[in-house]
Design a protein that fits this description.
This protein has 264 residues and is α/β, with parallel strands linked by helices. Helix content is 45%, strand content 14%. The protein is built from eleven helices and seven strands. The protein has a seven-stranded mixed beta sheet with strand order 1-3-2-4-5-6-7, with helices on both faces. β4, α3 and β5 form a beta-alpha-beta unit. α1 packs across α11, α2 packs across α3 and α4 packs antiparallel against α8.
Length: 264
Amino acid sequence: MSEISGAFPHYVLDGQEDGPVVLLSNSLGSDLRMWDPQVGPLVSAGFRVLRYDHRGHGGSPAPPGPYTLDDLGADLTGLLDRLGVPRAHLAGLSLGGMVAMHVAARAPERVASLVLCCTSAKLGPPSRWSDRAAAVRAGGTTSIADGAIGRWLTPGYAAAHPDTVAVLREMIETTSDEGYASCCGVIERMDQLDALGRISAPTLVISAAEDQATPPEHGRRIADGIRGARLEIVPGAAHLGSFEQPERFGELMVQHFRQSGDPR
């Protein structure tokens, strides 16, 4: 059972207690609120929705780095252990998708199905991530907030939804500097291309057509590497497609989890 400096990840559970569990894993620089648009559709479909914050994000502890993908994967499976959930559906966006892939390849018995959103199995160049980590350690997460918002949302959506922009900016700026920088290090060192072939869970890959951070070719490479995986490209969305196209993301997730069967 994983602990983060003596504590567990911060988490929230929604939905009926006897529903099949769907675990949602967040992106770099966000917290569990990034999944707010998907909670209602999943709960209405009868699922028990488990959201949590990565170490160094939201309400979770921020131990000193460096962090590894093994650390983040152990945080996820340790939370399932704590809650007595032997097997769940997993969905992750960006960093959350990277962690979900890692768990599915290393502990397939824990994963009933996968939804991998706006993510990558290898996201170079490494210097991009070491430079961003250095910028955060020097100037804090506030210093990179504008760039992150620019990647997360299309310009038109950002201009039309200032309240959403304010919420997302607050997520970034309240993320621990050490937590953000150390998770950048995880992405810098990550290469899961060879591990894709070990993933056996039914997998849906969702890419956003206007995502410049993890363009659709990253989703296509994941889908090509996982036997039987399906790729959906959602138009009219950038990296945080779950906010820009919440209905479509929710529809795709509910459909995939239902088709994959009850994890219990």
